[in-house]
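WP5 quarterly update. Target: Glutaminase. Source organism: Pseudidiomarina salinarum. Length: 307 aa.
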Amino acid sequence: MQAPEDLKPLLEEILQDALTITDGKVADYIPALAEVDREHCALTVATLDGKITSVGDSTTVYSIQSISKIFGLMMAMERIGDELWQRVQMEPSGQPFNSIVQLEWEKGIPRNPMINAGAILVSDVLVSHYSTSKSALLNMVRSLCNNEGILADSRVHESEKSHGSRNSALAYLMKSFGNINSDVTEVLDHYFWQCSLTLSTEDLARGLAFLANRGVCPRSGEKITSHRDAQRINALLSTSGMYDQSGEFAFTVGLPAKSGVGGGMVAIVPDYGVISAWSPPLNSYGNPARAMAMIRNFANRLGLSVY
Ligand code: GLN
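Structure tokens (predicted):
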């Protein structure tokens, strides 16, 4: 199907379809996420001509969780270049996002930057190379999204810290192999803080448009990353962004994508735009059931697979 001039009726139909999906469980490892209304649902499409079309709760902010791994990764790539790939691999893990088993086998080198171990490693790079890694990341996200009001949710941040045993285990295991340079507490604090950033589907659609536009922000014309790095980030999102469901997502949808346990998800459509969706209930892989269904429907209806 050719993309219609006005996307709104199509998005409305897709959102209504997604609301019929009632399975899935809202993340409950911290109270601040468990309390979020499971009925929230939003879908936004930002196209490279600057148009943003949304339906549902598209201006409500939510905890972006692992979607923040994209922002951390691009900063680390920019800061230390190819040195990064000595410390984290670029291979799919085929394991749950918080798995620890491969990390022991592979001597503290995470399989990729999209699983928790990889994102904690990236946080170490940021903490080691920026005097204030959190404000550097926040300034970048605000500027990309053109929204100075973006904040981290301190309640989510604090409860991530007090329920962070598994992430701490990942960090200390990497430290024992000599792959974490900074103080582990500081590294984890950065990681939990970036997970607690709150953005809307519209913020994220706007903020990640450069990945669909060869590294250039379509709004300002500013070069955010090189074309090569945009391609590389998209490649990692394609192979690892949906964790151990990345293969199925590539097969059924065929777009670079990233999910978070707050129920958010983004998919990059090179040379077209960004699809951004949110609804809290998660499937057994920790990916958001309705958000995935909405992105799959939109991409399939318009034939957007990159393959
Ligand atoms: N804060 C979550 C964790 O570290 C992020 C994971 C996710 O969104 N998949 O477990």
